[in-house]
Structures are given as structure tokens and as C-alpha cells.
Fold:
Amino acid sequence: MSEQPLTPHQVPLSTSAVLGRFALIGGVVFAAALAFAYAGGWLSPGRLTPARMVEALSARGGNPIGHRRNHSKGVCFTGVFDANSAASRFSVAPMLATGRYAVTGRFAIAVGDPDARDVTGRVKSMAIRIVAPDGQEWRSGMNNSPVFVVSNPRDFYALTIAQDIDPTSGKPDPAAIKHFFATHPQSAPFAEWAQSAPWTVSFADQTYNSLNAFRFIDAAGDSHLVRWSMKPTIPPASVPHDALAKLEPNFLESDLNGRLAQGALTWNLIVTFAAPGDSSNDATKAWPPGRQEIDAGTLIVQKAEAEADGPCRDINYDPTILPNGIAVSDDPLLAARSAAYARSFDLRTAESADYPRAASATGDHR
Amino acid sequence: MTSSPDSFSLLQRTLHWLMVVMVFAMLFIGVTMVSTLKPRFLALIAIHKPLGIAILVLAVLRLGVRLKRGAPPLPEDLPSTQVLAAKLSHVVLYALLIAMPLIGWGMLSAGGYPIVLFGSLHLPKVLPQNDHLYAFLRTAHTLLAYLFFATILLHAAAALFHALIRRDGVFRAMAGRGI
Structure:
């Protein structure tokens, strides 16, 4: 076969053919652009996007610019996770093998206002990042409620909207919250906990629960459905809510600093294994008692630091950042948390001028 | 190699069309994942990272082949503005093919994220953790993705213009002899 010479304009096209072919080209480009716009959600104003979710979270009072849009008020800590290898049979995660692994964490209250009074924090949280020597990370965000308030992102959005500040009154509408719980029976176990659980003056005496289910993957590749909890080694000391209301606004951070001045605080990492029939995808449902539990090691919290200049400030505690050996379950909240946390992280890192670092603000630490 | 000076080599054509699929997938995955809270978010982001690195490797290979072997000449009667547009858009496309994965990699590094490809296979962090740097690269990643998509549409429109209206062999040089 000899090459055909590439002679241009072999047969002249009629004007209508040229127009038709231009229209075809235009149509192809337009269709591609339309598909791109559809994929990006620009044609679906009703789509629940990370941006909408985070916008709703940002409207619950106070000024969260520069801060996390949920669990906005918190304090950093550092320490180690001392693993005992008891869970290694069920997961090849490197930080479950015997050893001590660096931890950077954060205690917080689940509010949208970074200047909220601590007494308003019904839900307390612990976020941790455990780093293995090979660089793999296990990030987890845990709450002190035994179950989560909703099972899916749509309901979480509805609850958040119900908590948003009404621009006319400057306050959230109490009827909206009531209406939410009245129309979402799945949220009843959480509501019951929120009404009845004892309040305490400390982050240190709380149990923090993964809430979502995950999968441990063992050396044979078998998968085990689990949830985990950080159980404190001191008993909770109940304090009436009225008494807490009389304390200074930042009593949780003061309490933490006071305790850590006396010595480290410890929690045991308790891994709970599901029995057949336990829900993998509904964080509003507690697993019945009596499930197999393993104490996988001890979290030792050694030092607390203010968030503004602390090591947790610029960490996104995305619970889907997991080492090999731990995987997400089919719980729809996990993807939603990951997507929304990423959006919140993108916003706050771009707004860091609105949340000055303590050292640069005071000009010390030369 | 069965190429002639009038056509791209088989390797060049293979790389081009393979990367058409990969880059289109990448841009659609990217724009979808940042706009959804659904479980597909996790699957999409798990594809986005290794696919981006694969594009980076192929783009470097392709640039090397292009610099070594060159490209068929454009038709002599092509207006100079179109020649300029062709050359400029190719520079932009090559630059973005290489810059986008590097920005993504650098952005995750500056954000303090582990850069997971598969399982325990990680890439090293190429930048120190820094919120300003992260915010800058994160914004650049989005804006350059839009520029990338727009340039690809322009490139595709120009290719079809050559194929359907000018019929000057430019499209055939990349499409292969069968077309």
C-alpha cells in the first residue's frame, strides 16, 4: 500500500454541507459540555452537595470562618497508641501490631460556633490520627453518644437545617428541632441518650464511639464487621447541667490541661465484632450487648495544645483514611463524612487568615 | 514502526487515544466526586488518585516520544492564526497533562493527607504540610481542571473541523489510516 498524498479540499462542500458539519461539531462540543455540567451538579439544584451540607453546618450561630464547620470548638492533643496485637488476628493494620505509634488528636464539642460555651456541647468527640512506621494512617472521629443521630446524609442535612439560625429571630427555631425528631423515629435512640445521659465536666471520663461500622481485613483476606470505642480508664463523674452552666465558658479545655499537668490520660481501644444480623449500615442502631470484644491497646494522651497553633489544626480527621487492613463498611454516612470534611477542610485552609495562629498573633516564639 | 512522516506513529496514536479515555474519565470523576455525598464518592476518589498518577507517567512518556519523533507538519495553507492556536493548545494540553497530577500530588502532601494508590502502596509526600500552600494548590487544581476541559473541547472541535470541513489529513494523522 502506498501512502495517499494528503491533498486538502478534495471535493468542495456545498454551503449547506459546511453549515451542517459546523452544526455537528457544535453539537458534539455542546453535548460534552452539557454532560460535564450534569456530572458536576450544575444542572441539579436539588442535589445534596458537600458545599450545601457545609453551608448548612456553617449557619448554626457564631462565626466559624477559618474553623471546622462542625465540632468547631476543640483542643489538640498528642500521645501514643500502645498496641498489644490482640486485634492483629483480625486485621493486618500495622498499628494493631505490638508497638507504640504516634497519635495526633483533637477533643471537641459538636457545635457550629467555635466560641460556644462548653455547656452547650451535648456531644463530645475525640478525633485521632495514628501513624504507622511505614507512613500508613488510621484516622477516626468518634463521639461520646452510643449511636449517631441519623443514618444517612439527607436526614443529617434536614437536622442541620433545623438547627440553623432563623435570620428574623437570630435563634434556631425550637419547633423545627421538635418537628425533626417527631418525624424521624430512627433518631429516637440518640434523642433518648441526649436527654438522659449524665453530663460531666471533662473530656477525660467519656467513652468515644466510632458509631459507623468498619471492616477489619485479616491476613487471609477475610473481612470482619466491627465498631470500636475508646473507653476511659477513669469512671465518669456526673455533674448536674445547672452546675456546668455556672462554670467558665472553656471549662473542658481547662479541665483537660489540669488533668494532663498531673499525668497522662488513658483510654482502651475496644473493638466490638458484629454478630450475624447486626447492622453494617445504620449508625442509629446500637449492636446488642454480648458481642465479642477485644482490647486492642491503650491510647495514652500526654499533652494538650490550643487548636489555633496546635498540631491538629490542619488535619482533616476523615474517617475513611484507613490503613491496609481496615476498610469502610457500606454505611452511607462514611462517604458523606469524607466528602463534607474535605469541603470544610478546603474552606478553612483558604480562610486561615481569619483564624490567626497564636504565635504569629502575639509575635512571640522567636 | 509503520508510520510515515505524514502521520503520528502507532505508539503516539495509541498513547493519544488511551489518554483521551483516561483524561475524560478523570475530569468527569473529579467534577462528580466534589459534588456528591453519596457512597460513590469513595469509589471515585479511590480511582482518581492512581489514575492521575498513571496519566502523569504516560504523559511524561508521551512528551518524550513527541520531542524525539516530532509531529507531522500542519498543512501549508493553514492560516497562521490557526497554526498558532494549534501549537499553543498543544503546549497547554501537554502542560496540563503533567501539571494536574503533580498539583494533585502536591496538594495532598500540603494538606497532610496520606497519598494512597492501592492498599498499603503510598507515594511519598512531595511538599511540607502547609495550609496556605494547600489552599492555593486546591484552588489551582479546580480552575486548571476547567481550563483543561475547555481546551480539550477546543482541541476536539478543531480536530473535527479538520476532519469534516477542511479534510486536510490532520485528523487522519492521529486517527490512523482506517479513517
Q: What stands out?
A: The longest strand of chain B covers residues 115-118.
